[in-house]
Structures are given as C-alpha cells and as structure tokens.
Design goal:
about 325 residues; alpha/beta; 5-stranded parallel sheet; 11 helices; about 15% strand; globular; Asp/Orn_carbamoylTrfase_sf
Length: about 325
C-alpha cells in the first residue's frame, strides 16, 4: 500500500500515488457493488460514527451505506440536538466520543478546520465530509473516479469548474486533486463569486462561459451556496442562469464528447438546464452519486487497514 494516512482530512496532503490507490480501490468496489458482491467483513467489528453538524442527505446516506456494505456498526448522531446546543465545546464532544472508542469518525462541520481539530483529539480514523469553505475530499475523489471512468484517464484533460467558486469546498478540493493529476483547470464565474488570490491556484480564470468552455473535456457545475452568502453576489437567479447557467447553447462550445457534472443538490434552471442534467449521453451526475459510495468504501477500507497495522505494531491504538 502507498496510502499510509491515518485520517482523510483533505486532498492537499495526498500524493498522486495515494490518490491513484484510493481510486483503484474504489473502482474495484464500484464493480463489486454493481454485482451485489461487496465484502461484508472488511469493517466487521468496527464502529463508525457519522457526526453531521450541517444538514446533509446524499453525503450522510452515502457514508452510511458504504459503512454498512463493509460490515461496520454505523451510528448517526443528531448533532443539531446534541450537547453542543447545551454549551458543550467541540473538544469536549471529541473527548466524550473518544471515550466510547469508535474506529471511524465521519464529520461534517460548518467551520473550516473543525474536522482537523477533532482529529487531533481522538484515537480513531477521521474522515472529513466537508468543513466550511475548506475541503470536501471524498467529493473530489468521487468526481475524479467518475471522470476517469468516462474518459479512460485522469491526466492532461481540460476541465472547467463553473459557478460559485468562492464559497465551494468542492471546488477547492477538485482544484487541488485535478492539479496534482496534471490536468488543465479553468474556473468560470462572475467576479463576485471568484475567490481572492485565485491566480495562485495555477488555474485559468474566465468570467465568460462561452470562452471558458471552449474545447473542454469536462464541465463541472457548482451549486450556488446561498447559505454562505451574506450579500448581493448575483443580480438575480434569472440573470445568473442567463449568463452562467449551463444550457445547450453554452455546452456546444465544449468538446462534442464533453461530460457534464454537478455535485448536487442541483438548482435546475439556475445552475443547469434540466434537459442537460438528464441527458444520458452527456450527464454523469447519477454516476457521481454511485461512485460516492464506492469511494467512501475505499477510503474507510484503507484507513481501517492502516489503523489495524498500527495496532498490530504497538498493541494499542496509534
């Protein structure tokens, strides 16, 4: 194994060989899942706790399904009704959970860096399911797997990431992952939704969809993160769709075989036309959801192997 990490907190610390191993493992799980042959003993005897401090449907469900398919005992904690509401600090919550001796902790939190802080306080493997505007590593990995399956490779592709770049942890993780794998990355957004210091990301920047989409292999649309906006970032949703929503006319500027992606949930008629989203010849949005389960199975499998290896060496949790 080249993947030696104790936690999966972000894409930034991962080496390309580790990314490849994660994707290769996820590819095997994707095929096993399609044939109903997922090995139920990989995480047998291990406890997985899902802590979502932000509402989530698909990510939480995907982690839950992934853990159960591998045989873990999975517990979902309702953090909105937890002791944090009574004044308990995040560190106290971490220490309480640590005393319960879980093996895998899946965390989504609205504050950047919160998941890393938790990881420093517990003795189990921690997986970042999204923290603030920082990172969403498993989303980037499932996007990468989807691209690799559709294009047959994950290098030297031209990939456009379009929409609310400024507020998107998905965009941040994808920029890092796709850059590590030697792809050409274009960011397309209105200036109000482009992050400061974007020139340091090693990307090309466009504020015109038609120009930005010219001859790209992959079109990755992003959701407008309204819950993270505290001002007038766009004039109106109608105007936003007119200029930055993906429709057939704008997609025509990409390569004829370009694929269309969206991390979900979609705002149809705002970020993407429903006809494009449902086009089975161009859209891989449903495959992204399917690959999400496989990637999360792979991540938990590899982290569990590292955890067991550390226990074997020391006789206790490392």
């Amino acid at each position: 194994m080249t993947f030696r990490a104790r936690h999966l907190l972000g894409i930034e610390p991962l080496h390309p060989t580790e990314i490849t191993e994660l994707l290769d493992t996820a590819q095997r799980y994707a095929e096993l899942n399609r044939h109903g042959r997922a090995p139920r003993d990989v995480l047998a005897g291990l406890t997985q706790i899902n802590m979502f401090f932000e509402n989530s449907t698909r990510t939480q469900a995907s982690f839950e399904i992934a853990g159960k398919r591998l045989g873990a005992d999975v517990m979902n904690m309702a953090m909105q009704a937890s002791s944090l509401k009574k004044g308990e600090t995040l560190i106290d919550t971490a220490l309480t959970l640590n005393a319960m001796r879980p093996d895998l902790l899946v965390v989504r939190h609205p504050n950047s860096g919160a998941v890393d802080l938790l990881a420093q306080k517990v003795n189990c493997a921690v997986l970042n399911a999204g923290d603030g505007r920082h990172e969403h590593p498993t989303q980037a990995l499932l996007d990468a797997l989807t691209i690799r399956r559709a294009k047959g490779r994950l290098h030297r592709l031209s990939i456009a990431i379009c929409g609310d770049i400024a507020h998107s942890r998905v965009a941040r993780s994808n920029i890092m992952l796709l850059g590590k794998m030697e792809n050409r990355i274009r960011l397309i957004a209105p200036p109000t939704l482009m992050p400061s210091g974007v020139a340091e990301f090693g990307v090309e920047v466009f504020d015109d969809m038609e120009e930005g989409l010219k001859d790209v292999d992959v079109v990755m649309m992003l959701r407008l993160q309204k819950e993270r906006m505290d001002g007038g970032f766009i004039p109106s949703e109608r105007e936003y769709f007119h200029r930055y929503g993906l429709d057939a006319a704008k997609l025509a500027h990409a390569k004829p075989d370009a694929i269309v992606m969206h991390p979900g949930p979609m705002n149809r008629g705002v970020e993407i036309d429903g006809t494009i989203a449902d086009d089975i010849n161009r859209s891989v949005i449903q495959e992204q959801v399917e690959m999400g389960v496989a990637v999360r199975m792979a991540a938990m499998d590899l982290l569990a192997r590292n955890m067991r290896a550390a226990r074997d060496q020391t006789g206790v949790m490392a």
